[in-house]
Specification:
Structural class: alpha+beta
Order of helices and strands: HHHHHHHHEHEEHEEHHEE
Radius of gyration: 60 Å
Oligomer: single chain
Shape: rod-shaped
Strand content: 5-15%
Strand order of the largest sheet: 2-4-5-7-6
Largest sheet: 5 strands, mixed
């Protein structure tokens, strides 16, 4: 993953946590507001329930005839309580509000019943023909206490005035007592349910506030941990890699070329610093390759200078030996023995061999600059293979040339590039012992021509691959070891590159890249 993506991801994670916290707290805020409004409602409900009970007490104390405002107040509070219950039933349908509505309805029914019975009893007192009741001083006292103690009034009427127990007035007083008991119980129920609803609302508000506090304690530290942890991870990762890169740059300046491991490369997630390290590793490889090439060039230059001097020193004596041996062979005619003739022929043959070696040394040493002209590379390759075929048996070699049938034009020194392919083809035929597949592929790329020469021969050991372009190094039983060194020099002088890949017993492939081809300006 790139550094930019890591930073963006860490920001996104932190922002997501903050967003979650904000949304959660907003929802909690809405819930808290709702619970506070509910708490206000239940507080109002409890207050009005207490007021209802107060006016209920005043009603029993003064009676509806002497304190009619208390009756109106009771009905007013009942209407308000019923409205509150109905409104909250529509909102949440809670069982407590339904119970409250039922109790308010029952209370109102009981209150109306009590009010009616009281008026009926007073009316019966007025029209009663009970002996001595109207003239008695007991009537006003009975009227005052009848709402608070109706059963005492009934006992008074039975005992003092000798009313029968089944008298209508006695029955009304007993019904009044039952209604008062029911009313008071209903009032207690209303007060109890209002307190319960208030307690529930307070608990809900406290719970929402508690959850909000927990969310703050959880999400905010989590945000800090994730944000700071991610920042520390990214910073430490980048800084550590940069420190390592600095140390490797210092080693590179001292001539060492170590490679750096890229963090996350195995998972394909290297960041920009990893990309920088990868590019640096590629630069290290190129520097290492350039150093080898420079060392090779210096080595070739030194050997070339030595070979040139040695070749010039050897050339004249070898010519003299060769000419002297030929003169001696001609003068001897048939007078010498077979042994002497054989010796003279051996001298001539070995002299020719040494002259060939000296010729290779001179060609390697003189370093002739290429005389460039545009040629058809396909024809040059076919011609080089034909020369190799004339010099040795290639009848069992399957030669193929994979190229553009229209031809490939390149600016090169024809003689030198022909020597390159002759050397490569000769080595390939020797490696295959004259039997196998020899394949040449030519591809034009933008500004370059890439040529691969592959054989199915015995291949080269891995430890020998890096040495094959060195002068006098050879894996053959005979030869000077200068062929590939000369090839290397020719390719380099043409501004090209040559490399080799080989597997033991699986063949060898040489790849040559030359300037030219399509796209060259």
């Amino acid at each position: 993953m790139s550094l930019k993506k890591k930073i963006a991801l860490s920001f996104f994670v932190s922002a997501a946590l903050i967003a979650i916290l904000v949304v959660f707290e907003y929802i909690n805020f809405v819930r808290i507001s709702s619970e506070i409004r509910g708490l206000e409602v239940t507080d109002t409900l409890r207050s009005k329930s207490l007021q209802l009970r107060r006016h209920e007490k005043n009603f029993f104390l003064y009676g509806p005839l002497k304190a009619p405002e208390e009756v109106e107040a009771v009905y007013a509070y009942l209407r308000e309580l019923r409205g509150i219950a109905q409104e909250n039933i529509q909102k949440d349908g809670s069982g407590g509000w339904v119970f409250l509505k039922d109790r308010v309805r029952d209370y109102e029914e009981d209150f109306r019943k009590i009010e009616g019975l009281y008026r009926q009893i007073l009316h019966e007192f007025e029209k009663s023909a009970i002996s001595g009741l109207k003239s008695s001083n007991s009537l006003p006292l009975l009227e005052l206490t009848i709402l608070e103690h109706p059963l005492l009034g009934a006992d008074f009427l039975r005992k003092e005035l000798l009313l029968p127990i089944n008298h209508e007035l006695i029955g009304d007083l007993q019904a009044l007592d039952s209604g008062i008991t029911s009313l008071r119980k209903g009032g207690e129920d209303i007060l109890t349910v209002s307190k319960e609803l208030d307690r529930t609302a307070r608990e809900n508000a406290d719970r929402v506030i508690y959850i909000s506090k927990i969310a703050l304690f959880v999400f905010f530290p989590l945000f800090l941990i994730v944000g700071i942890g991610t920042l520390f991870f990214i910073a430490s990762s980048v800084v550590n890699q940069l420190k390592l890169l600095i140390s490797v740059v210092e080693k590179t300046g001292e001539g060492e070329y170590p490679r750096l491991a890229i963090v996350g490369e195995e998972a394909g997630g290297a960041d920009e610093v990893g990309t920088l390290i990868r590019k640096f590793n590629q630069m290290e490889d190129q520097l290492r390759q350039r150093e080898r090439e420079l060392l090779q060039s210096k080595k070739l230059a030194a050997i070339g200078t030595l070979a040139s001097g040695v070749a010039h020193e050897l050339n004249n004596p070898l010519n003299n030996i060769y000419l002297s041996a030929q003169v001696l062979e001609r003068e001897a005619g048939g007078s010498f023995s077979a042994f002497v003739k054989e010796t003279i022929n051996d001298i001539v043959g070995q002299t020719v061999r040494v002259k060939r070696i000296v010729g290779d040394l001179l060609e390697f040493a003189k370093g002739k600059e290429p005389e460039v002209r545009e040629i058809d590379l396909n024809e040059l390759i076919r011609g080089a293979y034909k020369l190799v075929s004339l010099a040795g048996d290639t009848s069992s070699v399957n030669f193929t040339l994979d190229t553009d049938a229209k031809g490939v034009r390149v600016p090169v020194d024809q003689e030198q590039i022909e020597r390159v392919f002759i050397n490569l083809f000769s080595n390939a035929v020797d490696a295959m012992a004259g039997r196998g597949d020899l394949r040449v592929v030519v591809r034009e790329e933008r500004g370059t021509v890439r040529i691969t020469v592959s054989d199915s021969g015995r291949g080269i050991d891995a430890e020998e691959v890096e040495k094959i372009f060195e002068p006098f190094y050879t894996t053959k039983h005979k030869g000077t070891g200068l062929g590939l060194a000369i090839t290397f020099n020719i390719v380099k002088k043409h501004g090209g590159e040559i490399s080799v890949e080989s597997d033991k017993d699986r063949g060898t492939t040489f790849e040559i890249t030359l300037p030219g081809g399509k796209g060259q300006q």
